[in-house]
Amino acid sequence: xxxxxxxxxxxxxxxxxxxxxxxxxxxxxxxxxxxDEFGFEVFTFKKLAExxxxxxxxxxxxxxxxHMLLLFLVNWYWEWVSYLISINTMNVVDPNKKLKIIIHSxxxxxxxxxxxxxxxxxxxxxxxxxxxxxxxxTKQVDNENSKGLFGxxxxxxxxxxxxxxxxxxxxxxxxxxxxxLFEMSNNHIYFAKHLPRLTDISIKNDDxxxxxxxxxxxxxxxxx
Amino acid sequence: xxxxxxxxxxxxxxxxxxxxxxxxxxxxxxxxxxxDEFGFEVFTFKKLAExxxxxxxxxxxxxxxxHMLLLFLVNWYWEWVSYLISINTMNVVDPNKKLKIIIHSxxxxxxxxxxxxxxxxxxxxxxxxxxxxxxxxTKQVDNENSKGLFGxxxxxxxxxxxxxxxxxxxxxxxxxxxxxLFEMSNNHIYFAKHLPRLTDISIKNDDxxxxxxxxxxxxxxxxx
DNA sequence: TTTAAAATGATAGTAATGCTATTGAAAATA
DNA sequence: TATTTTCAATAGCATTACTATCATTTTAAA
Lengths: 224, 224
Known about the structure:
CATH topology of the domain at 74-223 in chain A: Tetracycline Repressor, domain 2
Oligomer: homodimer
Helix content of chain A: 55-70%
Radius of gyration of chain A: 18 Å
Shape of chain A: globular
Strand content of chain A: under 5%
Number of strands of chain A: 0
CATH class of the domain at 74-223 in chain A: Mainly Alpha
Largest interface: A-B, 46 and 46 residues
Largest sheet of chain A: none
């Protein structure tokens, strides 16, 4: 017997809760693999259906379109990171330590954490890095935001901003810096892999220590 | 008689130099308007052709596809910002002042600069903010990068990183911070407009002072 | 000025994409 | 056992992302 956590997300993200059926869990599992493999624009429900031995129409019963599926995956990811952070910072009082743990959680967590059977968190992390920005750079962003479809990210940013303010109550931009930490982490991992002239860090064997070091360095200077 | 600067870009970005013909300049002019209006994924060459009273096929003679057109526009923007920076920092020696001018140039420049007749720089700035990340978050990034199609951005980042190192030679991450300045600027303008809970700044009447202030504040702390 | 070449327009066509609708069978539940 | 829910299978359609062909206009060179 094993205990599986189910991450619950805003139900506007899907037509039918995919985590509650085998087919739905397969959609999650294989879409992560295929989006990573093809990239989001080349990925289609048809390819996904073929991979899963199912049909396009069946997938459309769970998600309105591939954009919603991406939004679902990204929210899932941030919700999972939130969960890791809440576990790992439990009983930690020093806000500086908390912030260190937070940074470690979203930079390196996917590597050393077990997780959920139908989700490969490490590949999902790749997707968030490579495709995540597409989830909110659309013309529908205002409408989706009003329905709470970015809730997971916003609530995480809120949590982190509080810790930032604990570290230094005088710091003027706690929210901006919270989101910056996430964006910098994702961006510089991406840059290191694809546009190395845009960053100072490098990545060997999928080890993100340099990214973590950089975020700690900047945090220290900014919140001193 | 008027003097128009022509921005020259890597010729891998287009099939035929669009700045050299009326039709080509129209493609630039109207694609900026339409991408801003519809968003990049809904924008098509067919719509553009209709708007311009031309045909799809004619546009395909200039650009391989809409992705290349976006890449062209984004490069054009960064090249133009580089040009503004080089003019405005001419004869400035104090690196702190230089950095201030640089920040002002890419945050607020589109507003108070004349520019080129067939390019609405202010709308183009919007596109860079809303759609710019899609130019390099693709599966072809490595291939395109090897052809120098991100050259304008990289060379700008390089310029700025040098100024950062002048301000503080001990600072460990000059490249990362240079790109951060651009990314933060774009992100937080976008957040302020669409996801305000992710930032601390707000924007009234298209005035980006708060963004500039934030970037100055962070720069000061980081490079102190 | 003629003449060729290059640029554009007009039209058509194709394969793939992004859906929607319908039907019927299987599986779960009452 | 009856009934609702779930899913697969098939078909179909409008749009997208191109490519090809040929006629016509513009330009530039001889």
